[in-house]
Amino acid sequence: MSGVLPEGRNEAVRGLSLDVELEAVPADDVVSGEPRQGITELGGIGGVETGIWELRGGVVTDTETDELFVVLSGGARIELLEVPGHPEETGRTVEVGPGDVMRLVAGTRTRWSVEDHIRKVYIAAE
After folding, report:
1. Which letter, b or e, does each residue of 32-62 get, where b requires 16 or more Cβ atoms within 10 Å of its Cβ?
2. What pTM value is reported for the model?
């Protein structure tokens, strides 16, 4: 996997100001608003993907991959709609903001509510 932090190089990027090209969220995933999202790939490390993801203005649903993320700016309310193997977590809501770290389990159905924006750096299983 290539990205802005190439394998085998000691490099740094400014996560808060790195350009993330935004595009409309697919209509099937939009609950409300006119959300836009984008990803800038940072590169692979140890067989996993890393990148910066941003979502702006709206409510969307998603099916998650196995992921760990750190919120860089903004925030979101994440509703766990369905959690495979852990039905007791279904219906739980987690609010995240700058500096928060969260793990998402593959197959979890979520609803992300974002008033302004959320920007996060993620590490996700390929």
Report:
1. eeebbbbbbebbbeeebbbbbbbbbbbbbeb
2. 0.92
Q: Write the CA distances from 30 to 12, 25, 26, 55, 99, integer angstroms.
A: 34, 7, 7, 12, 26
Q: What is the DSSP letter of 57?
A: E
Residue pointed to by tokens 């996993």: 48
Distance CA 20, CA 41 (A): 9
Distance separating alpha carbons of residues 96 and 104, to the nearest angstrom: 13
Cβ–Cβ under 8 Å, residues 78 and 93: yes
State what percent of residues in the chain have pLDDT above 90.
83
Domains delineated in the chain: 23-125 (2.60.120.10)
In 3D space, the residue among 14, 40, 86 whose CA is nearest the CA of residue 103 turns out to be 86
